[in-house]
Amino acid sequence: MRVMAQLAMVMNLDKCIGCHTCSVTCKQAWTNRGGVEYVWFNNVETRPGQGYPRRYEDQETWRGGWTLNRRGRLTLKGGGRWRKLLTIFANPRLPSIDDYYEPWTYDYDTLTNAPLQEHTPVARPRSLISGRDMKISWSANWDDDLGGSPGLADRDVVLGQVSEKVRLEFEQTFMFYLPRICEHCLNPSCAASCPSGAIYKRTEDGIVLVDQDRCRGWRMCVTGCPYKKVYFNHRTGKAEKCTFCFPRTEVGLPTVCSETCVGRLRYIGLMLYDADRVLEAATTPDDTGLYEAQREVFLDPHDPRVAAEAERAGIPRDWIEAARRSPVHALINTYRVALPLHPEYRTLPMVWYIPPLSPVVDVVRDTGHDAENPGNLFAAIDALRIPVDYLARLFTAGDPAPVDAVLRRLAAMRSYMRDINLGHDPDEGIPDKVGMTGEQMYDMYRLLALAKYDERYVIPPAHAEQAHQLEELATECSLDYEGGPGMGGWGPFGESSGGAAPVAVENFHMLQQRQTADRPSGPSDKRTRVNLLNWDGKGAPEGLFPPRPDGAGPGGANPPADSGAAETEPKP
């Protein structure tokens, strides 16, 4: 047994309202530079729908993830070394800009400087790639709220795999939102696809990163990732991807998408797993067995033998304690209500989802029956095969049994807690029907509905003794800055290929210098910008108010030096 630690995330899809706040804040923090206008490390999709990029789940086209060869061994679906060598200068398995969308801005100059005229001037959309006028026809969330509509449903890859009855009746059944980030897999196919070895998985916390100094822009990683969460920066010639906000997690803070989530649907915690069993799980012959196979890779942090092996492997004691308090471990292994996204890709993803129960409840309520009655809900789950079949294609490689079991636990929790909230004696037979005790059901309810900040995010900070191990390239977070990759001139494989020297990784508070820049070269107006994203809420950040003549800050006191706000200087 070789114990390793992995930061993981669980999302409760019943609580996602599709507001896209997570996407916007992630975009502002990580991909607000030139060359990545079309990049969304976090995006929220409406299901059924095409996803982003379009039809990314069609692996017969994109050849992402792993498959088993005739000998039962793992092999990349996109081909091995020889195929990559033959196509290294012309990779044919890449989504085009049309599969993403052509980013645009508007001709604001015409709008603001137009002379007086009879008709209101129009700011036409202009391409950020060519600079020419364009017609907007697609974007990252173009099919938002249109799940099941006739014009889009037939292009949903997952919907095409279920029965004809499902496809005909799906529009009348339900839709739901699916937020997606990089899965930070235990068996990442993007890392195996990279000819330069630029993509790697950190041994400290399992986060998958791109070494910008090694990246040569071959774009094999884009093909290799079945979730299409690796993007190409056409300005720098480098690959970029979600970093799980590692400068934040290293100091115990949650990711930006989790911090700003309106629905509080995200949970972050530590998982301990046996690295020696990863290959065995990924080579499970039957796709429908991959979910349970991955669960068996995870270790019980309460087991004294596991804790001893973890300490022997160099995992700090407070990390082991964090794994014991991990909400992710509870949702995946204790309550068993979280499921992986497309386990059939065999990458062993580490971002799991609680499937939505709301569609079933809505159907029962629409019939005029009591939607919280356990008899009605259980019967609806048995009879309403449409959402179960579709969800099974998403989360369990088509096996409806685990999805059915999860929906039953969620339904039982609603019915059991209703009696308690109404002051009635709880029916202990309800949790018994789904293999749980009343105490476990209450604890699960508390975690899903009432958990506070420090219960939803159990993130152990990095240790000082790990500082040398955590000294990665500063540009692993894929943000350009003066002197870094993307700023060293053009090379044979793109801008600044192989350019910058390694520097120590920055901490969260140092991110303000990057997040306040809207251009890669460090804009001249950086000192006049205010960054509220890093503000700790104490005092007033510098630059928010004009300086007083006596030199004191607002209210007669100087702002705190560590407020995280950008320094400013008075305008003339």
Topology:
Blueprint: E1 3-12, H1 21-30, E2 43-47, H2 59-62, E3 66-68, E4 74-76, H3 81-86, E5 104-106, H4 108-113, E6 125-127, H5 150-153, H6 164-169, E7 176-180, H7 189-193, E8 199-201, E9 208-210, H8 220-224, E10 230-233, E11 238-241, H9 246-249, H10 256-259, E12 266-274, H11 278-282, H12 290-297, H13 304-312, H14 317-324, H15 327-334, E13 339-340, E14 351-354, H16 358-366, H17 374-383, H18 385-395, H19 400-421, H20 429-433, H21 438-450, H22 453-456, E15 490-491, E16 494-495, H23 512-515
Parallel strand pairs: 1-14
Antiparallel strand pairs: 1-12, 2-7, 3-4, 5-6, 8-9, 10-11, 13-14, 15-16
Characterise this structure:
- The chain has a domain at 501-572.
- The protein contains 23 helices and 16 strands.
- It has helices at residues 21-30, 59-62, 81-86, 108-113, 150-153, 164-169, 189-193, 220-224, 246-249, 256-259, 278-282, 290-297, 304-312, 317-324, 327-334, 358-366, 374-383, 385-395, 400-421, 429-433, 438-450, 453-456, 512-515; strands at residues 3-12, 43-47, 66-68, 74-76, 104-106, 125-127, 176-180, 199-201, 208-210, 230-233, 238-241, 266-274, 339-340, 351-354, 490-491, 494-495.
- The strands form seven sheets. It has a four-stranded mixed beta sheet with strand order 12-1-14-13. A two-stranded antiparallel sheet has the order 2-7. A two-stranded antiparallel ribbon has the order 3-4.
- Helix 19 (400-421) packs across helix 21.
Key attributes of the depicted protein:
572 residues; two-stranded antiparallel sheet; alpha+beta; 16 strands; four-stranded mixed sheet; disordered C terminus; 30% helix
